[in-house]
Write a structure and sequence with these properties.
By secondary structure, the protein is mainly α. It has eight helices and no strands.
């Protein structure tokens, strides 16, 4: 989703009835997508994990840019990391095509990216605009000073990093073994 397309949804008066509409549409869309656990069959390797976590971070920064009027920061982020973000986008596309096939993979990728944007938008409504925007400004400052390797760490340590809903292949294997033995995956440690 481009920043211009998403921009149409977010205005300075966003916190009113439009916010309720976005949250409602996000809930409806989430119901239409089904539970995240249905995605557990597709396990991610390290490259896919990094790409998904980067997409979470990019979605959050895009929403912050629109909510807080920080478009120049977002544009600087995209410009600075364009080659890296493009590689991560390719990894993401590869993961979905490999996991779901060409047609369904493209559909699942689009649904996941939309779900992440909706989630980031809902998170922006969870606190005051001032608090959210102060946090976003700090996050942009860190991101813009980062190297691609630092950006991976920033994305991975993000509290919402796993909001993409996919499990690593190790987690899926542990869950499968646990289910076969009739124990919870948490009890396997």
């Amino acid at each position: 989703m481009s920043i211009r397309t998403f921009s149409a949804l977010r205005t300075s008066s966003f916190r009113g009835s439009l916010a309720k509409s976005v949250v409602f549409s996000g809930v409806v869309f989430s119901i239409a997508l089904g539970p995240v656990s249905a995605q557990a069959e597709a396990c991610m390797d390290a490259a896919a994990r990094t790409a998904l976590e980067m997409r979470v971070l990019q979605s959050e920064l895009m929403v912050a840019a629109l909510t807080c009027g920080q478009r120049p920061s977002y544009n600087a982020f995209v410009t600075t990391f364009k080659p890296y973000l493009m590689r991560q986008g390719g990894q993401l596309k590869s993961f979905f095509v490999k996991s779901f096939g060409p047609k369904q993979g493209a559909e699942m990728l689009n649904k996941t990216v939309t779900r992440l944007a909706n989630s980031a938008s809902q998170n922006s409504l969870a606190v005051s605009t001032q608090m959210y925007c102060d946090s976003a400004a700090a996050r942009f400052a860190v991101a813009l000073k980062s190297t691609p390797q630092d950006l991976v760490l920033l994305a991975r340590t993000n509290p919402d990093a796993a909001s993409h809903g996919y499990k690593s292949c190790v987690e899926v294997a542990d869950s499968s073994v646990a289910n076969d033995k009739g124990i919870s995956p948490e009890g396997m440690n």
